[in-house]
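Sequence only, no structure available. Ideas?
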Amino acid sequence: MHAVLMSEAAALQWHQPVMGAEVLEALNPRPGATVVDGTVGTGGHSLMILPRLLPDGRLVGIERDQDALELARKRLADFEPQATLLHGNYRRLPAILQELGIPRADGLLLDLGISSLQVDRAERGFSFSREGPLDMRMDREQEETAEAVVNELAADELALLLETLGEERFARRIARAIVRAREDGRLTTTTQLARVVAGAVPPAARHGRLHPATRTFQALRMAVNDELGALETLLGHLDAVLSPGGRAVIITFHSLEDRLVKRAFLSGARERRWTVLTKKPARPSAEEVARNPRARSAKLRAIEKR
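Reply:
I predicted one. Tokens follow.
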């Protein structure tokens, strides 16, 4: 069996794959199959899947974060040419498969949300606990940043964004506070914004389990990267990209994503396009959550194409 050895320091660079055993069980990769890892990240799940595809299978890994993709290329180098890694967005999957001359895939994996590689690097601007630029772009080739959203949207537009993507109950208060704050100068850093948000919510809401800026940062990140739009587009393509008997496995991390996946999976099942393999979403074990607290909110759903 193929093995990849790494130093402890190198391992810390790589996003810890969530629910690895559950992914393999649901995806069921087999020798000769073609599997798409639409959120390849630093290659954690792909590293588990590729040995199951040998000797003549193929994995297509898609990733919009160039830093993560570079690490994945190094991590999966021994699997060339079975592993094809591309910079791009999984929403373009039908076009990507066509460009590669692949009619349909036998498996598809999406591990949604944000990676440790992004959160833990202050210069990426994803974390309110680290001083950094208001960036939040997963793909740094795109133009729009969180700074543009925060400084250019009107108060009503900001409030709607925070309500819909962040499910923030103090959205209007926070939006008004942001607009007032930027009258004194453009908001440019994560800690600036976090202070404005914390000052906008009622005192009782400043000391709960979640930092008061958590939902605001989530909403901005999802807006900047159009995360729900990409997911909706991909869900609409499932019929076209999966072979009969092919499986799709999607891991979500909050209710908005999970709701989209659940509805799409149930709708396709009613239309007899596929079978839902997970009547209830699979959840990480207590042992995994203790080892990797960021896995706590993960939910895994899977289907098999008819």
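Residues 159 and 175 are 5 Å apart (CA to CA).
Hope that gets you unstuck.
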